Inverse folding.
């Protein structure tokens, strides 16, 4: 097994996975690289269901072993919201979306502001059962945004062990501790096993 489709059009995400899988001697492709314009709809009710739908859908379209991920923010005080709706939460984006979440938590004290980022990666292979791996990063929702790095909810996601929000960390450090990095390292072990099985 020497090729892997990463189910994304995002070159940054492709580079991130390329770094983590660097020693596996894999040729990575994005959806654009293989000419796939079809969008596999995320109709699942969980991160795992959506990741599986994407991985198996794009594997069928490409014929290649395929990696797909679904991720988002779960806030305990909001019953796990925004969850799978993280990217479109409140129908807003950017600073307005952060403010919408903060407004919902205005009267919630620090010790009840626990949250976590979740990333589930699905790996779909033409010859093996689909496998799922997960990475999480626990934190606390800040009262006001801090930091200029990262994207999405990073400015309001405080990581206790780092004494900083994700937006205050360097990109290098974030990519060491993030939910996606943890899931990707677990995915690497699955890919290694597939390579050994294929190479005999």
């Amino acid at each position: 097994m020497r090729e892997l489709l990463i189910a994304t059009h995002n070159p940054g995400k492709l580079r991130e996975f390329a770094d983590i899988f660097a020693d596996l001697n894999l040729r990575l492709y994005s959806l654009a690289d293989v000419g796939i314009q079809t969008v596999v709809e995320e109709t699942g009710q969980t991160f795992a269901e959506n990741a599986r739908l994407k991985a198996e859908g794009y594997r069928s379209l490409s014929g290649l072993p395929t990696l797909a991920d679904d991720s988002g923010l779960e806030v305990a005080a909001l019953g796990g919201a925004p969850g799978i709706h993280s990217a479109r939460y409140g129908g807003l984006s950017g600073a307005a979306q952060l403010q919408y979440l903060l407004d919902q938590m205005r009267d919630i004290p620090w010790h009840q502001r626990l949250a976590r980022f979740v990333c589930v990666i699905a790996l779909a292979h033409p010859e093996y059962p689909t496998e799922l791996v997960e990475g999480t990063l626990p934190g606390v929702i800040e009262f006001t945004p801090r930091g200029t790095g990262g994207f999405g909810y990073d400015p309001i996601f405080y990581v206790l062990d780092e004494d900083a929000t994700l937006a205050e960390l360097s990109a290098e450090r974030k990519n060491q501790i993030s939910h996606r990095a943890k899931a990707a390292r677990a995915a690497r072990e699955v890919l290694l096993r597939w390579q050994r099985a294929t190479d005999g």
Notes: The chain has a mean pLDDT of 93. The helical segments are 11-20, 47-62, 94-104, 171-177, 179-199.
